[in-house]
């Protein structure tokens, strides 16, 4: 396939590089040409910074921009393509955001967290596929199956629920790690000591229902420890963390009984 990307951020960077192993990456577009050029150099593509420079004779165009820019981007792209399949990579944006401006559209959403520094285990990364036209499911599935062993045909509504769940499982849990680091840093304790606990907790959650393996003072109903922790946060003048601690503890205790 001949594929172009709109966007040069983390998702575009990872997808373009893995696609380039089997397909031709034609163009990388970014409003900042230097950003487009950086990714284009990695995948032997042309860097562009305006829609007028788009090569229309490609098989697929991947919109890998922020969610709020997807609608604006498809409106502009619809003037340059006729048969080309246009897909977005968003977990939460409905397919109709593309469909209302162009017929041949789809979704290629990798359920993964991306950073420029990390490598992605594509074989184990779930890929969620959706297509407006039935005849476009096959090429999208073929492309996804060439990368991952975990490919799913999910609706926009199902994908949104997964994206919400991912925020809890990834973004919120990572912020909990950040709060933990703030606490130990304030008391000159090595955050590295928590690494085995973090890894074991994640491992247990992937092999058991999280509710079953929930532990801690809130789960035990140990009010003495809960109060001790709250007092420590109060003495450190961390009312923000104290509020989070209380809310999560209350939710754990309520969940225990349901």
UniProtKB/TrEMBL annotation:
Keyword Oxidoreductase: yes
Entry's Gene Ontology molecular function annotations: oxidoreductase activity
Annotated organism of origin: Acinetobacter defluvii
Pfam families linked to this entry: DUF2520, F420_oxidored
Classification via Gene3D superfamilies: NAD(P)-binding Rossmann-like Domain, ProC-like, C-terminal domain
TM stretches of this protein: none
Domain Pyrroline-5-carboxylate reductase catalytic N-terminal per the UniProt entry, residue ranges: 2-89
InterPro entries: 6-PGluconate_DH-like_C_sf, DUF2520, NAD(P)-bd_dom_sf, P5C_Rdtase_cat_N, TM1727-like_C_sf
Domain DUF2520: 126-252
Keywords linked to the UniProt accession: Oxidoreductase
Protein name: DUF2520 domain-containing protein
Keyword hit for Oxidoreductase: yes
């Amino acid at each position: 396939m001949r594929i172009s990307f709109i966007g040069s951020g983390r998702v575009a960077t990872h997808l373009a590089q893995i696609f380039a192993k089997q397909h031709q990456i034609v163009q990388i577009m970014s409003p900042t040409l230097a950003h487009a050029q950086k990714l284009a150099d990695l995948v032997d593509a042309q860097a562009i910074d305006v829609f007028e420079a788009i090569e229309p004779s490609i098989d697929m165009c991947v919109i890998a921009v922020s969610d709020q820019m997807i609608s604006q981007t498809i409106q502009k792209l619809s003037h340059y393509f006729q048969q080309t399949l246009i897909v977005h990579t968003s977990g939460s944006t409905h397919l109709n955001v593309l469909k209302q401006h162009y017929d041949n559209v789809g979704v290629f959403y990798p359920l993964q967290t991306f950073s420029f520094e990390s490598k992605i285990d594509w074989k184990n990364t779930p890929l969620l596929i959706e297509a407006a036209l039935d005849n476009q499911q096959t090429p999208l599935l073929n492309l996804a199956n060439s990368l991952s062993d975990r490919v799913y045909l999910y609706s926009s509504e199902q994908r949104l629920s997964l994206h919400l769940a991912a925020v809890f499982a990834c973004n919120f849990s990572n912020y909990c790690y950040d709060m933990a680091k703030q606490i130990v840093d304030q008391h000159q304790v090595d955050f590295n000591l928590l690494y085995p606990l973090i890894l074991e907790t994640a491992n247990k959650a992937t092999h058991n229902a999280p509710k079953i393996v929930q532990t801690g003072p809130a789960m035990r109903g140990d009010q003495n420890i809960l109060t001790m922790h709250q007092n420590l946060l109060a003495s450190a003048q961390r009312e923000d963390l104290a509020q989070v601690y209380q809310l999560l503890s209350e939710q754990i205790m309520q969940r225990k009984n349901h």
